[in-house]
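Mods, move this if it's the wrong board.
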Amino acid sequence: MVQMLTELVEKRLERKLLLRGAKNIKFLSLLTPENEPMFSFGYKTNLGENGVRQYTVKADISDENQTYAKLSLIYE
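Not the wrong board. Structure tokens:
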């Protein structure tokens, strides 16, 4: 899940990112592709202060009925 989120954010920002830390990763429910073939990543990015190229990414992985995970990651 972290790798998929990283790739999505890299594509959106059009640059390579380095994972520097994980503030929080909560797995709320089991996500199996056989049972849940369609799910989505909802995320937002915040640029660090003072022009530092550090991004805080908060994401939810869910489908229309359930949230599977919540992540808060820090990238450079």
